[in-house]
Amino acid sequence: MTPITSPSASPGLLAKSSFQRFIDALMAGGYRVMGQRLCDGAVKWDDVRLVSDLPIGWRDAQEPGRYRLEPTDSGRFFEVVNGPESVKRFAFAPREPLLVIERSSKSFQATPTLPKGEKTALLGVRACDLAGLAVQDRVFLRDAYPDPYYRTRRADLFLVAVNCARALPTCFCASLNTGPKAQAGFDLALTELDDAFLIEAGSQAGRELMPRLPLAPAPEQFLAEAEAQAEACANSQTRRVETAQLPQALYDAHEHPRWDQVAARCLACGNCTMVCPTCFCHAVEDVPDLNGQRAEQARVWDSCFTQEHGYIHGKNIRPAVKDRYRMWLTHKLASWIDQFGTSGCVGCGRCITWCPVGIDLTEELPALLKKA
Amino acid sequence: MRQQQPAKTTKAVTRPRLGVFKFASCDGCQLSVLNLEDELVALGQALDIVYFPEASSAMKAGPYDIVLVEGSITTSEDARRILNVREQARTLITIGACATAGGIQALRNWADVEAFKRAVYPSPQYIDSLGASTPISEHVRVDYELWGCPIDKGQLLRLLIDLLAGVQPRLPTQSVCLECKRQGHVCVMVARGLPCLGPVTRTGCGAICPGMGRDCYGCFGPAEGPSAGPGLPPNTASLASRFHHDLQLIPVEVLRRFRGINGHAKPFKDESHAWEDA
Ligand code: SF4
Ligand code: SF4
Ligand code: SF4
Ligand code: SF4
Question: What pTM was computed for the model?
Answer without folding.
Answer: 0.94
